[in-house]
Amino acid sequence: MKIVFLGTSGSTPTKQRNLPSVALEYNGEILLFDCGEGTQRQVMQNSLNISKINKIFISHMHGDHVIGVAGLIRTFALNNREKPLYIFVPEGEEKKINALLTFDKIKFDYPIIVKEAKTGVIDKNKDYIIKAFRLKHSVPTCGFIFKELNRLRFYKNKCMSYGIKGTMFAELKEKGFININKNIKNKNKGKRINLKDVTYEVKGKMIVYATDTRPFINTVTAAKNADLLIHESTYANDNENLAKERMHSTALEAALIAKKANCKKLALLHISSRYHSIDTMKKEAKKIFKNTIIPNDGDILEI
Amino acid sequence: MKIVFLGTSGSTPTKQRNLPSVALEYNGEILLFDCGEGTQRQVMQNSLNISKINKIFISHMHGDHVIGVAGLIRTFALNNREKPLYIFVPEGEEKKINALLTFDKIKFDYPIIVKEAKTGVIDKNKDYIIKAFRLKHSVPTCGFIFKELNRLRFYKNKCMSYGIKGTMFAELKEKGFININKNIKNKNKGKRINLKDVTYEVKGKMIVYATDTRPFINTVTAAKNADLLIHESTYANDNENLAKERMHSTALEAALIAKKANCKKLALLHISSRYHSIDTMKKEAKKIFKNTIIPNDGDILEI
User: Could you report the predicted ipTM of this complex, rounded to two decimals?
Assistant: First the structure.
């Protein structure tokens, strides 16, 4: 799967960084995590197909994380979108998002389905589940877990040696076993092959998105062994007190979360516009958690 | 005065063009005409001082012209703005703009004053007046006239020869005349000098902003002899019918307005995202009105 950091600034944009949004492209669809002002243009400028956006997960209703939805849904309308768009917001915030979406009393010709994200599973399909968990910020805020389901893969050589081919794979998957035809010329003829004899499991990837928040035990629990934790890092150590006061995190605090959760990789975003260089932040985080990156807008991660 | 084309696209942004907004920098303040999504970042990227924005003139409440206000006013709040911000919207649209501004029930610490723009003078100070006029679009839409007031300039040499200097200029301006001191050694001693004897008038510049609209007689009247007409040009001739249907203008239609109004210069914006090249549009407009430009985002005009 492909993760594109569309916007990596916090609170206000800068010349270099747009407001928060992360795109996760998976199996032909795009999931957006947050949608700050200007996100639709960031999608275009990163050559993503805007019509693939099916679901938007809004962490909280502060303007810098959500105003972009208003423009995006109007562009969908102009593009004659028909398929539904799902927008998840923290519990109790449905009224606010609706006020933003239809400030001008516009009626949309495609379904826009707003859902309040309670703690736990909020969305699933055959490939993945999405869970929400509560973060610690000045307003109701959700973190999100994208968990790809474990997948079965066939041992190619084993299958070949049993003479399994064509539609037999589907039959095997469906029934859990298959009887090899008695009439074929094969030492395995008539044998019953179980699914588990010819398959192995590939562990699904896990990505956790946590912004805006103070460093919080919930995030450690949610991000346990995650392949990637995307965590806010509004400040460096020099503004540790401001981070506390404004319910944000420093780079170091985010790194501690990644370490405690035994994550494989940490990506920091929501960088305050006061920092013209991220060198200090990177240094402070890497001292605690080596595999830390601070992406620029447009940076791509393949997970 | 300086005009910066912050966003020149229509309806949806493109890789090259952001949504509509034009900044007019005059005498230490910035007036914004329309404020599409992403305008605050365009302001930053064009190195304008965002805190100088005092007044925003919204042509109509279609999302592409107004959504940027929501982000801008939050950035002002984060910057601890204290001075008031004036937002002008077409008559009857106050509720809609308020729904957008405070979708999240935020309270601002500085005054945001929304005014409905009736036809006629909507704002004035010692340097300029702003008038609104009605355009012809699918929703209530205003055009805006920025009219710099005529200014008096002193003939330097004449003033010198009469011995006018220092505080005498202010006195002359205030009273309309001045009596030259009887005691000075000058052939003009004791003489009464009238203001008009030592001054000439410099005509103020006039700029007219007209988008979105069908070509409309009101615009011709409003833009009579304007130094600059900024007019929408969503389509080229190939989409003449679409322009009619969707209540927009072609480049040629905009050029005809500029010609009839005897404008000095025409700038086209609100270019549909379907046009990857503006060459045809430019050609069609220039055939009618030679002094036509189609600015790119970030282009600057000194008037």
Answer: 0.91
